[in-house]
Amino acid sequence: MKTLTLIKPDDWHIHIRNGAVLKTVLPHTAKQFARAIIMPNLKPPVTTVAQALAYRDEILQALPLRSSFTPLMTLYLTAQTAVSEIKKAADSEYIHAFKMYPAGATTNSDAGVANISGIYPLLAALEKNDLPLLIHGEVTDPNCDIFDRERQFVDSTLTKITNNFPNLRIVLEHVTTTEAVDFVINAGSNMAATITPQHLLYNRNALLAGGLRPHYYCLPILKRESHRQSLIKAATSGNPKFFLGTDSAPHLTHTKENACGCAGCYSAHAAIELYAEAFEHAEALDKLEGFASFYGADFYRLPRNTDTISLTKTSWRVPLYYGDEANNITPLKAGEEINWKIL
Q1: Which of 280, 301, 297, 190 shows the shortest CA–CA distance to 235?
Q2: Which residues are known catalytic residues?
Q3: Which of 1, 45, 129, 289 is the most exposed, fewest CB within 10 Å of its CB?
Q4: Which CATH number fits domain 8-305: 3.20.20.140, 3.30.300.20, 1.10.3720.10, 3.40.920.10?
C-alpha cells in the first residue's frame, strides 16, 4: 500500500500545556486531528468551567490561521470539586469529561485524589449527569512495583468503581497491560480505553536496554513485550472499546535529560504516522480508521468527522527537536526515520 486515506482522526487524550509550549506543539495536533480531548493538569490545574473556558480561548487564539481544529475541554477532578460544578460542566457544550488522577501518579498530579472512595458522591454526580470519567489507572502505593501499578489499580480500585457506578462512562487512559485490556473487554459497554503510539511500538527494552533513554520514559511506564502484544491485538481487533489517545506530553528537553527526568513522550509531531507504522507492522492497516476516526467519537457521542487526511508511504527524518535552542522539545524518534507521511 502506497497511500492511505482516512476519515480525519481525533486524539482522545493529549497534553498541550499553555504559554510558549502550547504555541510550539498545537500546530502539530491541529494538522492531523479534527478534535482532541485536552488534559487539565496545568499548573494550577483546570478545576472549574470558567478556567476551562479561558484555557479553550487560549488554545483557539494559538491555532494556525484557517485551522478548523476543535479542543474538547476537561476538568480536573479533586476531592474539593463541588457537585454544582459537575452540573455546570454537564450544561456546557465545551466540557466533555472529568479527569481523575490518583494523587502523585504522574506529572502535575499533586492535586489528584488520595482517597478514591471519598469521592464517590462526585462519581455519582458524574453518572447522574452522564459525563465521562477519564482515569489515570495506577496505584501510588510506594510498596507497589512500578511495573505492577496499573494491574493493581484494576484489581483494587477500578473493579469497585464499575460495580458501584454501572452507568458511569469510563475511559481507562493509556492502557499498558494485558490485565487492563482484559478488564475493558469484559466490562460493560460504558467502559473504553485509549492506547498510545509508544505503547504499541515499544516495550521496556526501548527505555532501559543499553542505557537509560529518557525520551521513552512515560507513565504508565513501558511494559514487557507480552503486554505490548496484548495492546496490538486490542487496537487492531476492531473492538470499538479501544481507540486512539496519544497522551502526547511535551516537556522541555532539559527537564527530561536530568537526574530526575519528567514522565511523558512527545508524539504529536507524527502521531498518525506512528500509529500507521504500528498497524502496518501488525498487518492491520485496514483497522486503523475505526481505531483513529470512529470509535472515540461514538463513545463520546459526538458526530464522526467527514473530512479526510491522506498518508503516503514515504520515509522522512524526525527533527532532533522542536522549538528553539533555548526552549526545545525532543520528540519521539528524534533523528530517526518514520515510514509514513501526511500528504
Answers
A1: 280
A2: 247
A3: 1
A4: 3.20.20.140
CA-to-CA distance for 316 and 260, rounded, in angstroms? 32
pLDDT greater than 80 at residue 107: no
Rg (CA), the chain: 19
User: What pLDDT does 191 receive?
Assistant: 98
Strand partners, 193: 172, 242
Residue 124: half-sphere exposure toward Cβ, Cα within 13 Å: 7
What's the pLDDT tens digit per position in 272-293? 999 999 999 999 999 999 999 9
Is residue 56 within 8 Å of residue 26, measured between CB atoms?
no
Whether pLDDT at 109 is above 80: no
User: For 311-327, b where at least 16 C-beta lie within 10 A, e where not — what string?
Assistant: beeeeeebeebbbeeee
Asked if residue 263 lies in contact with residue 106, where contact means CB atoms within 8 angstroms, the answer is: yes
Q: Whole-angstrom Cα distance, residue 303 to residue 292?
A: 14
Cell of 18: 499553555
Look up cell 489499580; give the residue.
Answer: 153
pLDDT value at residue 265: 98
